[in-house]
């Protein structure tokens, strides 16, 4: 899509059989390079997408379909192209490479996961469920509406050193100091109410004090 004019300039057909739920960069900062490929997932499999292929864009040699029904809900990559995939039932699968079995399966957290994010080094994973992140109950009550968090995101910078986490719920934007979270200090966060409903948010690259947001108009 050409964002300046708001028009679709190219459409890709990935597969005749697979409905894509999400597409993510092949590594955490791949969108800042000339890398044309993406990683996609459906409800039951993960695969590489290559727009340079003439017809269907799915790379057959890099497609992993699970035998049991999984219901993959979200995915993300770290700087080394390792993949983390979340499931609707709350589990997380960690892949070292596309086309192979998951190296690690983390147990269910009990609720569907709607967003997942990893730090550049792959050591930290942030998952987002519909009704909770690291918020104190008294602040949730002050929001005076149903909580529905957007997928949480780390900030990104050239040093691959994440310092903040951001999410939103309705008109509220919430950010945490990552160093405090790693030390078990969860109360050091900021909540800001805006005039409009926020539908997407993330930090601007290399700018820890700048958050880009999309609104419902």
UniProtKB/TrEMBL annotation:
<dbReference type="GO" id="GO:0052905">
    <property type="term" value="F:tRNA (guanosine(9)-N1)-methyltransferase activity"/>
</dbReference>
<protein>
    <submittedName>
        <fullName>Vacuolar import and degradation protein 27</fullName>
        <ecNumber>2.1.1.221</ecNumber>
    </submittedName>
</protein>
<keyword id="KW-0489">Methyltransferase</keyword>
<keyword id="KW-0808">Transferase</keyword>
<dbReference type="Pfam" id="PF08553">
    <property type="entry name" value="VID27"/>
</dbReference>
<dbReference type="InterPro" id="IPR013863">
    <property type="entry name" value="VID27_C"/>
</dbReference>
<dbReference type="InterPro" id="IPR040458">
    <property type="entry name" value="Vid27"/>
</dbReference>
<dbReference type="GO" id="GO:0005634">
    <property type="term" value="C:nucleus"/>
</dbReference>
<feature type="domain" description="Vacuolar import/degradation Vid27 C-terminal">
    <location>
        <begin position="1"/>
        <end position="135"/>
    </location>
</feature>
<dbReference type="GO" id="GO:0032259">
    <property type="term" value="P:methylation"/>
</dbReference>
<dbReference type="GO" id="GO:0005737">
    <property type="term" value="C:cytoplasm"/>
</dbReference>
